[in-house]
Amino acid sequence: MAVLEILKYPDPRLHLVAQPVAIVDERIRQLVDDMAQTMYEAPGIGLAATQVNVHEQVIVIDVSDDKSTLEVFINPKIIALSDEAIDHEEGCLSVPGVFETVERPDTVTISALNRDGDPYEKVCSGILAVCIQHEMDHLQGKVFVQYLSRLKQSRIKSKMVKLERQGA
To answer: What is the DSSP secondary-structure string of 69-111?
Structure first.
């Protein structure tokens, strides 16, 4: 396994739309393993392949306290959303040090392929629902700061550019 470089906002590659995975093979399973190691070492609770400059529909998530429940979503699709929404403070490994409140549906039903390429459906609620929606946004080329006001977006972008210049 390898720790991959995480792209930092406002890198334009974060806005590329990921393509579906044609076949879940050893290359994809290696990507999943590398993404999981990268996410755990960052540390984070979710990572989309777009964030490591691989523009295929692969997500890893682990919202457990002890980091023992890795979940893999390949070619995920939302098949149902609850009407009830929640406000949740979100952060992002591509936007380090920034935490902002975003409103999202509280429950989502997802269809995806697992690490072995087998299809499944999962009902996600609470933090898992927030996380899967956040990561699926990455696959569509969207970063969570785009849910914020233009002023906040501008301030965050300036902060990230300044940090990049300082080599942080």
So the answer is: --EEEEEEEEEEE-S-EEEEEEEETTEEEEEEEEEEESEEEEE
